[in-house]
Each structure stands twice: as C-alpha cells, then as structure tokens.
Specification:
By secondary structure, the protein is of the alpha+beta class. Helices cover 27% and strands 25% of the residues. Strand 6 and strand 7 form a beta hairpin. It is globular and about 45 Å long. The protein has one domain: Creatinase/methionine aminopeptidase superfamily (Creatine Amidinohydrolase), CATH 3.90.230. The chain has a five-stranded antiparallel sheet. Strands 1, 4, 8 and 9 form a four-stranded antiparallel sheet that branches.
C-alpha cells in the first residue's frame, strides 16, 4: 500500500528494459487467458494456466503472497466475475486453511483477469475483462466503455502533462458514452492506478476521475515515470463493498463491472505501453 511519504522513482533506461520484458510477459499471460476463456472453464483452471505460462516465460507472479492488512493473497492472478470489481480469488488456492471454492464460467458472464509478473526484480501489471461466450449488448458496451477510457488515459500521457490530465481524459471518455437510455456509469473511486517498478504499487496514485484533492496535489509527468492506468467501470453505482474473504470487491447494486489496465512509461516525446505483446500488438 502507498504511504503519503512515498517518493516517485523515475526509471533509467536499464530499468525500463527490464520492465519491457516483464510487460511482455504479462501480455502473453493475458493473451493466454483470452485464448482459453470459454463456458465450462473454471477460475482455478485460469489461475493454473497463468502460473504455468509465467513459469514457461521465466517470470514469477506479482500477486502470489502479496500482503495487505496482514493477509497474503493466495493466487497467481485475480479473477473477478460479473459484479466482482477486482481482487476475486480463483479456485483451488490455499487460503485460511482450506482451498478456495472453484467456480465454473457460464455463457453470458464476463470475467476480469488482473495479472502481474516479476522479471529480474521489476513488475509488469495488466488487466482485461473478457466475455464468456455471447454476452448481452449492454454488457459488451460496458467493456468497450472501460477499454476506451483506458486508452484515452494512455494517450494523455506525455512529458509536461499533469496527472489530472490523465484522470480527466479517462473520466471524459467514459462520460461520453452515457445516454438517457443507458444512464450513468459508475467510475470506481476507492481503487485507482499506481506507479510501478521494483514494487508492485509505487507512488503516485493514478485516479480515473478528477477531484479537488487531485488538483491540489497534482503532478507534472516526467520522462522515466512508469504508471499502471486501470479504470474500473460499473454499469450502475460506483459504490463497492468487500466480501468476507477480505479480498473480493463487488458492486453494491450487484450490477456488472469491467476492468482494463496497461503499464505505461512516460518517454521523451510521449508514452510507451510496456504491456504489449512481443510482436508490438496489444491484447486490448
């Protein structure tokens, strides 16, 4: 967790090269998740496949054993279904003395997979929301709202821009999708993006909305800053709650939520998405 006194660590070219490798590894794991997600697969299957892919690539999971509030996360990835916003625990993972329940993915659901990989001490972080078979049109739209919000934020990254410019770009793009028929989308405020490097979560925090607090403590982006941008968008209220497992965050109104994330570096002239595939393409 970030502390108010945390300083920002600007990355050298040598550090960025390691983060590029970590980012490509994450992208390959996410591509595997996209390829195998279908009705009938279980959350435990996804977790096992992600762990196997990380091992094959020579990376290790960022999330496994990550401690928050005295609790260690028990899985390789986070797998969140439908109204689960983030931090869903996949099945068959040892937690509190017994395996977590496994769950089968069913036609029409959506599943958010959040993945982190460590390579030579540096983290890459990426998330994607995937349809399970054919989903309802309004749910497909929710995923596109969130994905385009992410890319609006990425494209606002450049030296001299402010953190509030990134947040405003994300929020404005998401709001542009709203109609009288769809109503408003809930931009989650309790969970935001973050700096990343030798720690999974570094300064600064990267909100997906503009607030008075952000404007008061704004940050000018500089070359070498690496951040993970990750909007979480709900079909209904922005409000969330945490389940009794201490990890899984759900929407209060039980409506679906989408989550997309990329790790991005501020370059001399703009930005570089580090969580792309080796061929230069992106999973989302």
């Amino acid at each position: 967790m970030l502390q108010r006194t945390d300083r920002i660590n600007y990355k050298t070219e040598r550090e960025l090269e390691r983060m590029r490798v970590a980012g490509r590894m994450v992208a390959e794991v996410v591509a595997t998740m996209r390829a195998i997600t279908r009705p009938g697969i279980t959350t435990g299957d996804l977790n096992d496949a992600a762990g196997a892919k990380m091992k094959e690539l020579g990376g290790t999971p960022s999330f496994l054993g990550y401690v928050v509030g005295g609790r260690a996360y028990p899985a390789n990835i986070c797998v969140s279904i439908d109204d689960e916003v983030v931090h869903g625990i996949p099945g068959r993972c040892p937690y509190r003395g017994r395996p977590t329940p496994d769950r089968v993915l069913n036609e029409g659901q959506i599943v958010s997979v959040d993945c982190g990989v460590i390579y030579q001490g540096y983290h890459g972080d990426c998330a994607i929301t995937l349809p399970v078979g054919k989903v309802a049109p309004e749910v497909t739209k929710l995923m596109e709202v969130c994905r385009t919000g992410l890319w609006a934020g990425l494209e606002a990254v450049r030296p001299g821009a402010k953190l509030s410019d990134v947040a405003r770009a994300i929020e404005t793009k998401i709001r542009s999708w709203e109609t009288p028929e769809t109503g408003t989308y809930g931009i989650v405020e309790e969970y935001v993006g973050h700096g990343i490097g030798q720690r999974l979560h570094e300064a600064p925090q990267v909100p997906n909305f503009v607030s008075a607090g952000l404007l008061k403590n704004d940050l000018v982006l500089k070359k070498g800053l690496v951040i993970a941008i990750e909007p979480m968008v709900n079909m209904g209220t922005r409000k969330t709650r945490t389940l009794k497992d201490g990890w899984t965050v759900v929407t209060q109104d039980k409506k679906p939520s989408a989550h997309f994330e990329h790790t991005v570096a501020v370059t001399e002239n703009g930005f570089e998405v580090l969580t792309g595939l080796p061929d230069g393409t992106f999973t989302h």
